[in-house]
Amino acid sequence: MSIVEKKTKIVNFNELVEGMVVAKNVEENGSVLLKKDLCINSQMIKKLRSLLFIGKVEIYEESVEKKPSNIENKKEEQHRKIEEEFKEISLKLQKTFRQLANENGIAMNEIREFSKKIQNELNPSSVVIKNIVLYGSGADSIYRHGVNVAALSAIIGKWLGFESSKLNLLVYAAILHDFGKTKIDRDLLKKEEALTRNEFNNIKTHAQVGYQFIKDISFLDKSVSYGVLMHHERLDGSGYPLGLKDEAIHPFAKIIAIADVFDAINSDRGYKRKKLPFEALQIVKNESLGKLDYEYSKMFLEHISGYYIGEEVLLNTNQKCKVIQMNLNNLEKPLVLKDGEFIDLSRETDLYVKEMLL
User: Is the entire prediction scored with pTM above 0.70?
Assistant: First the structure.
């Protein structure tokens, strides 16, 4: 249900009644408890009162319902538009990478244009995030992956409050972060069997190979090449190519690393299947304890988990549910609503979300 709102008002939590629609996210300790545009029903009120207490809630005074069919059509249209746009950018990026390799820097005008196009497609961010969760980058671990990582990095940069020039540099680095893979044997990148140690070491050279090309581009800030070089470094020193730790890793590389991991988790590759949608969030959280930057990861998870609220999902029992509340301490197990009944997946060992629905 979509709502066209004109006026809002504040009510006490105990004044909530069925049919009221939340006008502003209600958050507690960084977790979204009630999401904007969520329509309250009696079962929800009863369950929420047993779980928590909220002092005030902002609701819509007046609302006009749109036909559900129109809403579904709009959602599908938004996702179709993003998917087509990202596919087009990916195809053009492939040509630009060839030009960049052959002419050493002449193609940077195209990279700047890609950055603008990607950033222009980020409104609403929720559609981009859901598109990446739903589809990932598939078998294309260079071009479409680069577009997805650039989009996520731009979203993270905005959440961090980066001003426009810094945000542009971050997006350049994200678009170019896997440029070095264009110099790796294509068959090796597409191999479906487990890689040998020598093969994996070969693939790992892409960060340095990309850096060697990018660092020589005239008038390009060094932060871009550092983001390319260090995006596989990890805070505990377990990353590559230099085994850097903590503050030695450039902030751009720390951001790109989060986006890189998130898209890879949500993508089918020849050698692996994509993870479950909420498992991907949990993996990022686990990696934040020593490998990915903790503060950036925390901010990323607190923000992105809010986008899952109100989304329809499919359980492993093939039952359709709606996500009502995320648990930041157990991201794989949200509170869901099915046929007017709340299910706390953290208390259900045999139930889990297997798929997000469009």
Answer: yes
Top pLDDT among 181 and 72 is at 181
- Tell me what pLDDT residue 254 has: 98
The answer to whether residues 137 and 87 touch, using CB atoms and an 8 Å cutoff, is no
Angle (CA) 333-339-341 rounded to 5° is 55
The angle, 0 to 180 degrees and rounded to 10, between the axes of the packed helices 143-159 and 125-135 is: 140
CA–CA gap between residue 245 and residue 252 (Å, rounded):
14
Residue type, 124: P
Calpha distance 143→133 (Å, rounded): 17
- Domain positions in the chain: 3-65, 69-274, 309-356
Asked if residue 240 lies in contact with residue 232, where contact means CB atoms within 8 angstroms, the answer is yes
- Is CATH 1.10.3720.10 the right assignment for the domain spanning 69-274? no
Q: Confirm whether 3-65 and 69-274 share one CATH topology.
A: no
User: In the chain, where do the E strands start and end?
Assistant: 3-5, 8-12, 26-28, 31-34, 56-60, 63-65, 312-315, 320-325, 335-338, 341-344, 353-356
Q: Nearest to residue 281, comparing CAs of 256, 302, 310?
A: 302
Cα 48 from chain centroid?
28
The CATH number of the structural domain formed by 3-65 is: 3.90.105
Give the three-class secondary structure for 65. Answer: strand
Residues paired with 111 in a beta bridge: none
Q: Report d(CA 212, CA 225) in Å as an integer.
A: 8
Statement: residue 327 has pLDDT above 60? yes
Half-sphere exposure of residue 123, counting CA atoms within 13 Å on the CB side? 3
Over the stretch 47-91, which tens digit does the pLDDT of each residue have? 666 555 556 788 887 644 444 445 566 777 888 888 888 999 999
Six-digit token string for 114: 């890609």
Rounded Cα distance between 130 and 305, Å, is 11
